[in-house]
Amino acid sequence: MDFQVRLDRERARWLRSRPATVAAEALRTREAQRLGGVEALALREGERAPGFALEDGQGRRIELLQLIERGPAVLLFDRGLWCPFCALTLTAFAAASGAFDALRVPLVAIVPAGSTPPGQTAPEGLCLLQDPACHITRAYGLAVELAPEQRDRYHQRHGLPAALVSEGAATSLSLPASFIVLPGGWVWRAALHVEDGAREGPQPLLGALRGWFARSAAGAP
Prior knowledge:
The chain is an alpha+beta fold. Helices cover 40% and strands 19% of the residues. The chain contains nine helices and nine strands. Strands 2-1-5-4-3-8-9 form a seven-stranded mixed β-sheet. A hairpin with a 4-residue loop joins strand 1 (53-56) and strand 2 (61-63). Helix 1 (3-16) packs antiparallel against helix 5 (84-95).
């Protein structure tokens, strides 16, 4: 089934299962993000991607310099497997990991540390990196701060893991985004997804990468 069809079905199912107050809350959150300038802070095409060294679920240390050593890499930022839209997206990318491997393009997803519910693991084929306190997410301009009352609502209504909920503290979540980063660290393609349930599947990124490789082979800038 097409990724967008699955995403639309999940969005419809999610809305049916939530009271009208949740939709109003989501609208307020998006408006707060807009007024807070979150979109303006996000990393853009042509800018340099901040470096990082993060661990995956097995404790292996992965660095950006390592990922882009021989060519472009794809970075996905998402909220974690507790979010149904994020889980669907990450599963779709895991299923398409063979296509990225065929292009020799590393594919990693960066999520807040502690955002994987107990008993769940990263979808097979996807490298899921843990971002403690959302430091790297913030460096990429994608961190959304939840006040304590928002944090509690996300925990009670949306399944935000208890590991991300600490009494009296704010919680940082990531705006979903995808980047293609070239050797040297330059961002060649950036996509930010602000609307609830809005995500990008693997096919647009694979198409962009194939186009980049074709232009590079032809000597085009």
